[in-house]
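Table S2 (continued). Query chain:
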Amino acid sequence: MSKPQSAALVRNRYFDELSATPGLYWLGQNTNHIESHPAVREAMLRSIEAGEFNAYAPPLGFEALREAIVADLGTPGAEALVTEGGVNALAMICRARCKPGTTLVTTDPTWKWPCLFARQQGAEVIEIPIYDPACNYRLTPEALKANVDERTAIIYLVDPNNPLGIRYTREEIESFAVIARDCGALLVHDCTYRDFADGHTPALHVAPQGSVVSTSFSKWLGLAGLRIGALVAAPDLFEELAQTSTSVLGASVIAQRAAQAGLSVKAEWMKKVRSIDRANKAMVQEAAAAIDGLALPIMPSHGNFLVLETIAAGIRPEALVECYRRQGIMIRQGTYHTQRFGDRFVKISTSVPQAWVEKLCTLLPDMVAQARTLNDLPPQF
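Corresponding output:
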């Protein structure tokens, strides 16, 4: 009798096959595939040529980079801890605060991995549904207050929300911070996509003592494969969270040099990236409007992605994902983000070369037609 396949191995082989696909168009992971800024490439090459990768980096990150991260966030007096991607920052926070008998409160949809980290620590995860035009696809202070109590260890807010692309106002962040303070919870503000948003307010601006911000260089700077991010907090909270760090030998030296160079040219770089991103979103919007049943429920999106609803068109999101995969294009099914609402949509990333989105849009009518006939689907993650 053959053994059942390992779920972990099946998942890894799925992404390994995607990675091995020549010329794959990555339009499903919100990664940035616009050609890197010359200053960033030069910084990496200089680091490699100098052999800097032969030595460990400082455990909290290079001081110049830590200072640049705090300055970029506009939070003087705070401290930054450089991590292997924003996800490791969030894992540290969950290890520090989550335990049996506590709860992590977030939205549905949300980014799934902090929920996993909380459960690994024995905490209960409470997901508040927001995929609803009645609440404008966003968490309300009233809904949050109804779901927190003395057990709440963390309120986890992805802002802009991945996958929905909504962005909270300063007033909403202030309300969430008051609720967190009143129940004794830590407000964890995942600001991964803030650089694609207009009018974004990091929680540290309104609640420096009761919140922590996580950031990433994966999306805005296109360094996903280099794995670099950070958490930023007031000094006392920083000291607490640093005790749970697994980055005791520092994050990648090459990635840190790239990140520092990126921050030095950020205004110029993001002007270019956001221009391309907006044009790509407009192309998807026009293509979707031409097909009955497809819809973009949230426009504008403040992230580098769009939710494309397929449910009214009678299409399974997984079927559309598979049809595009066969054409060398990767998009993401909604169930990656949410079991409750995942049958409604696919997610399309837009910080990519224009030619990628042009191909996606040109193929859309045929992909929709094929998806209606596709029932035999491989595993998707």
